[in-house]
Amino acid sequence: MPRMACASAAVRATRKGLRIKSVVRGDEVVASWRAEKHHEAFAGALSGGIAGTLLDCHANWTAAYHLMRRSAASLPPCTVTAEYAVKPGHPAYHRW
């Protein structure tokens, strides 16, 4: 299966999207992503909205992939997130 990535018109226009990549490895869908300076909420801390978007995007692709496999389809179905919640306990710090 090809790589899957979340994208939008705004991302394509600005070229500053998340660029998260979700790749199938065996029975798992694994995400890779690298934080950049513009993903900060404040110096050295990842924006909570970015963290939530990463989880939402990867979970959506993972669900779509597993639905595709279950139905033996050649393409993943269109899926959307009905609900999710993120409750961060503390900031996610990053060294640039």
Structural notes for this entry:
The protein has 96 residues and is an alpha+beta fold. 30% of the residues lie in helices and 16% in strands. It has 2 helices and 4 strands. The protein has helices at residues 9-14, 48-70; strands at 21-25, 28-32, 40-42, 45-46. A two-stranded antiparallel sheet has the order 1-2. Strand 3 (40-42) and strand 4 (45-46) form a beta hairpin. The model has no long low-confidence stretch (mean pLDDT 82).
In short:
This protein is α+β, with helices and mostly antiparallel strands. 30% of the residues lie in helices and 16% in strands. The strands form 2 sheets. A two-stranded antiparallel ribbon has the order 1-2. It has a two-stranded antiparallel ribbon with strand order 3-4.
What is the topological layout?
Elements: H1 9-14, E1 21-25, E2 28-32, E3 40-42, E4 45-46, H2 48-70
Please summarize the sheet with the most strands: 2 strands, antiparallel
Helix content class: 25-40%
Helical stretch count? 2
On the 0 to 100 scale, the average pLDDT is 82
* Spatial sequence of strands, sheet with the most strands: 1-2
Poorly predicted parts = none
Looking at the structure, what is the overall shape?
Answer: elongated
Instruction: Report the count of strand segments.
Output: 4
Q: What is the H-and-E element order? A: HEEEEH
Q: Compute the CA-based radius of gyration.
A: 15 Å
From the N-terminal CA to the C-terminal CA, the straight-line distance is 33 Å
Defining traits:
single chain; 96 residues; alpha+beta; two-stranded antiparallel ribbon; 2 helices; 4 strands; 16% strand
